[in-house]
Amino acid sequence: MSLGHTKGTVMTNATLTTSSEDKQCPDCMRINEVLSRVGDRWSVLVVISLAQYETLRFNELKRHLGISQRMLSLTLRELERDGLVKRTQYATIPPKVEYTLTAMGQSFREPVTALGYWALDNLAAIDRARTSFDKAHNKTHGKAHDKVKAG
């Protein structure tokens, strides 16, 4: 598997295989750690928004994304903790806080933007697949469910 990774840990097919002694590969565990944090939908959408508008205030992000205040606060805090977002607070009344991408956040821009475009390009196909799955799933489970109820 090649992710275009050029420094640090080298990802090879051997790295991704597991033996009976190693239940999980160490690289996969570390990747999971990072992706579980920065790969959630709100983090991705915040990064896309900041990549597009460069600097946004909290309420601007909230309006752009349609996200709850609590979820946006949690997401921004974690992105700041991970070094992807910089929070700048100004001593004004009312307080003014702005968010921008850090250098590391900027480096995350390309893969996140590609993911966003992929989602947009495949919406219709995903909708068709879901409809097909739901029809098949409901027919199968509907008949099984009816037999249980009748029995």
Any key phrases for this structure?
mainly alpha; Arc Repressor Mutant, subunit A; 2 domains; three-stranded antiparallel β-sheet
Description:
- By secondary structure, the protein is mainly α.
- The protein has two domains: 1-38, no CATH class; 41-150, Winged helix-like DNA-binding domain superfamily/Winged helix DNA-binding domain (Arc Repressor Mutant, subunit A, Orthogonal Bundle).
- The chain is 66% helix and 10% strand.
- It has a three-stranded antiparallel β-sheet with strand order 1-3-2.
- Strand 2 (85-90) and strand 3 form a beta hairpin.
- The radius of gyration is 21 Å and the shape is globular.
- The N and C termini lie far apart (50 Å).
- The model is unreliable at 1-10 and 13-21 (pLDDT under 50).
Which strand order spans the largest sheet, edge to edge or round the barrel?
1-3-2
Low-confidence stretches: 1-10, 13-21
Please, how many helices? Answer: 6
Given helix and strand content, the structural type is mainly alpha
Cα-atom Rg, whole angstroms? 21 Å
Q: SSE order, as H and E?
A: HHHEHHEEH
Strand count, sense and barrel status of the largest sheet are:
3 strands, antiparallel
CATH fold annotation of the largest domain: Arc Repressor Mutant, subunit A
CATH-scheme architecture of the largest domain = Orthogonal Bundle
Anisotropy-based shape: globular
In total, how many domains does the architecture comprise? 2
